[in-house]
């Protein structure tokens, strides 16, 4: 629970930090690289974490890194390049180039950051002290704090200023449900196939479809009410952002054999873009939905 919340906050904060006029790199590149680097550190520390307290490893990798990185946001960003949703003064060829750039740079950064995280951790891991497993009091206390942390997101949404809802507090409400959905899908579906991790694949495709739908609803004119817009933004940043993941995706690609890895990457990318073509493309070209967000926050 707290790992999901902190992952969302880190993603939103980092995105706000690296979004500015004249930026040289698209904002999601920083987010995916950071999450994959931390995932690499976590993978290298899997054995020590397991000896100390296994749930902390799950919190770091599945919870924090999975919520920090976002597959659905990556795919929607690519599709926005194809359709030039920013209304930049450029030709269709450069729209294609921009989409390919976001595809290749994200893949290279994610896989490279994951490997770099593993490498760095292996260099410093021998210097970490061996910790004794925690007792029952520590484990129960940590569980209670975790539940209370997520419970605090509800008063934060209702009691803090409505201006914060579309920025953060709405996303915090849906962070843990998104992570939990992905975690359960991975447990039940990943063992069913040795070619493609079906759980992560299903989570990424489902989350991408939902995010595309939410973007369509945010582009309806006349726009929705501020409360509805905040909920949609929260569902996109919180639920879809935590349901889909690039860090786990990169770790699975690295673990697969050559042809299986390329097949997993290709089928994930192609199906995600086809889903967005059906959901977002058909809505845009029918003329009833604007490509830019019309929601009033």
Automatic annotation (TrEMBL):
Transmembrane region(s): 25-45, 52-74, 104-125, 137-158, 170-189, 196-217, 261-280
Keyword Flavoprotein tagged: no
Keywords of this entry: Cell membrane, Membrane, Transmembrane, Transmembrane helix
S-adenosyl-L-methionine listed as a keyword: no
GO terms, molecular function: fluoride transmembrane transporter activity
Major location category of this protein: membrane
Residues spanning the signal sequence: none
One GO cellular component, as annotated: plasma membrane
Catalytic activity: fluoride(in) = fluoride(out)
Entry's localization field: Cell membrane
Membrane-topology annotation of the record: Multi-pass membrane protein
Family the UniProt entry places it in: Belongs to the fluoride channel Fluc/FEX (TC 1.A.43) family.
Function per UniProt: Fluoride channel required for the rapid expulsion of cytoplasmic fluoride.
Identification of the protein by name: Fluoride ion transporter CrcB
Organism placement in taxonomy: Eukaryota, Fungi, Dikarya, Basidiomycota, Agaricomycotina
């Amino acid at each position: 629970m707290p790992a999901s919340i902190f992952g969302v906050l880190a993603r939103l904060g980092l995105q706000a930090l690296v979004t500015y006029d004249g930026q040289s790199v698209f904002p999601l590149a920083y987010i995916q690289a950071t999450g994959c680097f931390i995932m690499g550190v976590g993978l290298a520390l899997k054995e020590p974490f397991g000896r100390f307290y296994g749930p902390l490893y799950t919190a770091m990798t599945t919870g924090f890194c999975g919520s920090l990185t976002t597959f659905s946001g990556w795919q929607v960003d690519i599709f926005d390049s194809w359709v030039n949703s920013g209304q930049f003064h450029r030709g269709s060829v450069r729209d294609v180039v921009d989409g390919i750039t976001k595809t290749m740079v994200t893949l290279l950064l994610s896989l490279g950051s994951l490997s770099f995280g593993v490498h760095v951790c292996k260099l410093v891991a021998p210097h970490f002290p061996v910790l004794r497993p925690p007792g029952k009091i520590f484990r129960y206390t940590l569980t209670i704090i975790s539940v209370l942390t997520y419970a605090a997101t509800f008063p934060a949404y209702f009691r803090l200023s409505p201006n914060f809802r579309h920025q953060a507090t709405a996303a915090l409400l849906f962070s843990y449900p998104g992570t939990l959905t992905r975690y359960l899908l991975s447990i039940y579906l990943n063992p069913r196939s040795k070619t493609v991790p079906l759980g992560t694949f299903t989570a990424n495709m489902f989350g991408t479809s939902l995010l595309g739908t939410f973007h369509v609803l945010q582009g309806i004119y006349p726009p929705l009410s501020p409360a509805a817009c905040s909920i949609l933004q929260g569902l996109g940043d919180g639920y879809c952002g935590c349901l889909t993941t690039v860090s786990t995706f990169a770790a699975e690609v690295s673990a697969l054999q050559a042809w299986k890895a390329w097949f997993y990457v290709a089928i994930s990318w192609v199906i995600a873009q086809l889903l967005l073509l059906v959901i977002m493309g058909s809505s845009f070209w029918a003329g009833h939905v604007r490509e830019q967000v019309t929601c009033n926050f």
